[in-house]
Each structure stands twice: as structure tokens, then as C-alpha cells.
């Protein structure tokens, strides 16, 4: 498993757990701050394989088949779609191991799978298959005659709480689409787990899956593959001659009772009409056998057994998934805060923040880049007070030493500083004329007025000394500017 931590549409990928053929599988969660409590699985087509028509059809077939199925022994599909050019399926996460991994672990420890647990696992899968085989379209009521066609240990999952589930209906055959899914000379499924009908290209029904389930059952009881050869052709020859090549499980595992020998050999009959005719019939037979042998049997025994096989991995994996989920939560919270911080700001700023091109730039600097601010001269914070009437119109600027707050406007940009303790704000204002234009216009008007009432000679003769000299009377001095407390005395101006 390798860490991913990447957003994928409405989901957030945590780690890569498997890859096979043209698809890859990830553990994931919902890409929302509130989505931390549920782990799911994302199965998607690898980049570049979307153009493969055959594989794409298989992928779409899996979606069509499994979206409607709802059974405790079949992995549930929640959602499907396409993101970044990659079709995907969102499905139930089974916290456990595949039957192939379980068989590998028992082989390492040189032990057989417990007899009763083997029968229980096969019985559970048979129940799931029986449901799928008899499934009817909810709208038309027509039987879809679904056949899985790839029953193998890799496609059987066992959770740590003892639940058994079937996965991967990617090559399942549906009656209404059989011609599309199977071409002449093409065999679907893993060679060692094919039925004689699949090899011969005959019409398939649920009994083909029953044969595949019999192969898995034999392997569980003996710890060895039933049909193993030097190459695929040799394997197919063994399956064609299964009437003579298949031995009773008890020849390899003396603990297997004769009753189970009979059941296994009947399931593996070459002629389909000599097998159990439905998966449900096989499930009932195995349930009866289990409780006849052990009336106190409890499905929790499977949970105890699997946990015992993988006790070290369980602890490590739980720690790992917890850490991944915490990392994902922090990333999603940061993403959420950044999106929320753009509310109320101009669209240009929102677009820039969304791109996240420079995460090290302060809010003020980001705003400067977006609006192309020019010639900004921050004013003295002690002299300017901005009255805030609607605090929702302001956004806190992060960072140290923020001496000014920038008001953004499409026509002009002005610099203000709020004297609010410990916080600085960005404020957007709309002005039709700039402060500089206002001052310039005032000076022009003053010059015109002076030219009307006073001659140039009077101005040159310094008749207006009271503008330059300190007037009579006491006053208060503030930053070199005297504010008079009494009216100054001055000579009246001579009229022209």
C-alpha cells in the first residue's frame, strides 16, 4: 500500500491498495470536512486505457450488473462516473483480506483451513451467487440470468468481523448482453478456475459458477490448487478431463469427512446436469452439514480465525489508515478555509486564490498581484481611522506587521489603515473620483477665487502674513501646526 492523499472529484484518495490489468484500486473517503467517518474503495481505469473498447465495456458491464445488486454477500457499489478522463466505481470497503491472502498465510504456517469454516465460506458465497443468478430487473421483472464467470480466491473477501463477500463482476455475463461480452474464441476468467462449459464455449448459466466454487472449495480443504499445470493449455486439459483428474479432498487432508468428499465431487461433475442445479441448493446443503456436525457453530469463529492469522497486520493497518485519514482531514480543512476566505471578495481574487499558485504569498500581496496595484503609499496608522459598520465586508489579513489594508476596486485602489486592535482588514469601496483629483480641483478653485478678489501686487506685498506667521493670542500646538483658541486679528484687505 502506498500513500496517495489526493483529491479525485468528490472523493479523496488515501492510499493505493491494489492494481491489476488496466484498473487500479484505492482506499478513499469523501472529499468533505464531514466525510471522515466512512472509508470506501475507488476502482478506476488507469490513465491511457480508457480507449481500450473491450476493457471499457467490461468496466461498464460491472457497473450495470452490480449497481442493482444488494446482498450481504456481495460488495455494494455506491456510485460511478468519470473524473479527469478516468471512469471509476465507488464501492464498499471490506476491512479484511482476500481468500487468496488467507490461503497464502495458512500455507506459510503449514496448516489447513478449518473444515467447518471452509464449508461456511463456500456456503456464504453460494448464497450471494444464488441471489445474483436469480436476480430480476426491477422495472421489467425479467430475469437477468447473471453469471459471474470468475469465481476464484482473489474475488472472495473475508472481513475481520467474519463477513464473506464476492467482488469483481467485471466479466459477468447478462443474458441481454451476452453477444456483446463474449466473442468466439475468447475465454473470460482465470484458467485454473474455469468450468468445462467456458472452455467449450457453451451457453453458460449459474451452474458454471457452481463448478468454479467447487474448485475453490477443494483448494480450501487441501491447501493446494486443483488444476495446476506447466502452462494454461495444460490446465485447460486437466479441466476437460475433470471426471478422471479430480481426486477426493480427503486423499490430501485426512480430516475431511466422507460427507464433504461427496459434496465436493458432485459440485465438480463435468456434466452440468449432474451438479447441484443452483447455488442456493449448494448453500442449503452446506448449512445442513455444518449444523449437523456442530450445532453450536457460530459465524464469529471465522472472525477469530482471520484475526489470528493477521493480528500484526491489523494493528499496523489501523494505525496507518487513521494517520492517512487525519492527514486528509487537515488538507481538506485548509482547502475549506481557503475557499471560505474568498467569500465576498472580487471574482478576480477568488479565481487567484482557487489556483493556489503561490501559497507563501500574504493576502495583501495576492490582492496586489490580481488587481495590478500601482504606487501604493500606506498612510500613518495613527492619523487614519476606518469606521467599520458591517464586519462581514472585511477579511482578516494573516501575517505580521500589516501596516495597511487595501481596498480593492475595478476603477481605483486606495490605502486605508484601521485602528482596530490586533486585526487588519481588507475592504472594498466604490469611489467615482480619487482623493488626488479632489485636492487638485480644490486648489484650482482657490486660485481662481484669489485672482478675483486680490491683485498680484497685494499678494506679493505680503498682505496675508497671518497665513505664514503665528497669529496673536494663545493656541494649542499639535505636530508643528498651531490650532488657535481665539480669533486672530488682521488688517482688512484692500479692495481692488
What does this structure look like?
With 496 residues, this protein is of the alpha+beta class. The chain folds into 4 domains: 93 residues, 2-Layer Sandwich (Phosphorylase Kinase, domain 1); 214 residues, Transferase(Phosphotransferase) domain 1 (Transferase(Phosphotransferase), domain 1, Orthogonal Bundle), CATH 1.10.510; 77 residues, no CATH class; 42 residues, no CATH class. 39% of the residues lie in helices and 15% in strands. It is built from 16 helices and 15 strands. A 6-stranded antiparallel sheet has the order 1-2-3-4-6-5. Helix 3 packs antiparallel against helix 10. The longest helix is centred in the middle third of the chain and has 30 residues. About 21% of the residues have low confidence.
